[in-house]
What we know:
mainly alpha, three-stranded antiparallel beta sheet, 13 strands
Amino acid sequence: AAIRSGRMQPAIDAINAVQRTKWCVNEYTLAAVEWCWENNLKPSDSFPRKDYLPAQKFPDDYDGLDDKQKKGHRIKAANIRRLNRQVDGNRSIMSTDIKQARSLLEYSHFYMPHSFDFRGRIYPVCNFNTQRSDHIKSMFKFATGKPLGARGVHWLAIHLANCGDFDKISKCSFDNRVDWVAQNADRLAEIGNDFEGTYAGDDDQLYWSDADKPFAFLAACREFFGFWIHGEDYVSSLPVNLDGSNSGIQHFSAASRTATDGALVNLMPADKPQDIYQAVADKVVEAMKADDADEVKEWLAHGITRKTVKRNVMTYGYSSEKYGFSDQIIEDHMNQLEADVIAGKLDKHPFTEPARAARTLANYNWDAINSVIKGAAAGMNFYQEMARVMANYNMTMSWFTPVGFPVDNAYYKTKSKRLRIYLYDKEASTGQSRTAVTMNKDDYRVVDVRKCVSAISPNVIHSLDSSHLLSTVLLGLQHNIKDWCLIHDSFGTLPSDTDKLFHVVRQSFVEQYEDKCIYSDIRKQLIDLLMREGHNVNEISIPSIPTKGTLDIKHVLESDYCFA
Length: 564
C-alpha cells in the first residue's frame, strides 16, 4: 500500500541510488588477505583461523585431580573442539570470498544489490559485501574515482588516522589526526607500498597488523602512497567513512532534546570528540575501587577500558539489560581470553570464574550507564508502554518513518501441532523410524506482548537511523554525491566528496528532528490506528510523551564530531 500510494517512494529512490554505486576490487588488500591466509597470520581477532589447534592433552594423573581441576581441563578441551569446528567453516568461507574477489577482477566495475529489512535498514543481498568484517570490506573500492584535491587529502588523512587509531588518535581533534599523518608520512607510504615488509616487528615502527582495523588501515595507506607519488592530482577511489557517535543515544537525545546525553554523543560543538564509552568506563573503575570482591580486583588488575564497556553502552539504547550485558561480556571478552590462553598468547585466564566476573561487570556497567545517560530511559519506557497498549487490543505497534517507510513491530505467539511421521531408515531394525515435527497454525494470531515490548525500542531506533541514512542519500544526490558506502550509522563516499557529505549528513539529521516530535508523531499514528479499528481512545490510558530537554538540534550543524 505504501508503494502504491507513493508514500514509500523516497525510500525506494534512496536504495536505488545506493545500488547504482559502481564497485571494483582493491587488488592490494586482496593480495594482503591472501598472503595472511596462506601464511596462517592473524592480524585481528576478526580474521579467521586457518589451522587446527592441537587437541587438549589430559594429564596422566587426571583421575587424581579434584573436581575443579578436572572441570578446567574439560572446559579447555571443549573450547578447543569449538574453535577447531570453526576452522572448517573458515576455510570454506575464505575460499569462496577469495574466489569471488578474484573473479570480479575481470570486470571494470560491478554493482551490489541491496534490500530493506522490516525497519527500513538496507543490507547488501550478496554475501561478498561491504558490511562484512574488516578484511572483506577492505577489498572494495569505488570503480569511479576523482582527483583528491586539498580537501580530499585532508579527509584521507583523517580516515587513515581513524583506521589505525594508534595511541587512540581517533579520539583527538581533526587537526591532531592530520598532524599525526604528517609526522608518520614516510612510514605510511612505505606500508602502502609493501604490506609484507611492514606487517609486524619488535621495534618502534608502525606496523599495519597493530592497527585498530588492520586491512582498512592498509587500504588507506595504499591510497596515501598514491598521493605520496602523484600529489593532489591522484585519482582516489577509496571510501572514506563518517561514523556516528553511538547512534542509539544520538537518536534518543535528538527526540528528547536531552542536552547532557547529546553532548556525550557529540550533538553539540566541542574542541575534541566527546567519548561516552570512556565516560562510562571511568565511572565503573571509580565505583569498583570501593569493592573488595575477588572478581572486582581481577577486573581492576586486568584493566577496564572504553572497549570493555563499549558493546554494553551501544546496546543500552536498544533495551539491553543486565542479563544481555553479561552474555555480551562473555562473548566479547571471556571467550577471547580463553582463545588467547589456548593459542599461547596468555599463560592463564585472568579471571578465576569468568561467568561470575562477567555478571559482576554487567552490574557495574548497568549502574554506570544509567548514571551517565539521562534521557534514553524515558524514551524506551514510552515506546514499551505504547507497545503494551496496542498488545492489549491484540494489535501490533506500527508506524511510518520520517522518510515514509512502513514498520510493523509484529511478534505473535505460536500455536503448534505435533505430527508423527514415519521415515525409512536402513539402520533401524524395522526399516522404519518414527519422528515428530511441529507445525505452526497460520490462523493463530495472538500478539506476543513480551516480545513486542522487548523489541520495540531497538526497532524504533533502527527505523530512525535508517530514515536518516536514506534521507542523507536523497540530499546527497542533490549535491551530486553518487558513490555510497553505507552501514546503518556509517556514511562513506569518495575523499573528494567528503566535504559535501560532512554537511549533508548533519543537515539531514537536523531536518529529521527540527520542529518535529518523533514521540508525538508515532503516538498520533497509533491513536489513529486504534480509532480505525473502532476503539474509543478516550477510554484507553495512552502514555504521554516524555518530557523534553533543552538541546537545540541546530547545534548538530556546528558539531565536527557527531559524524566523524
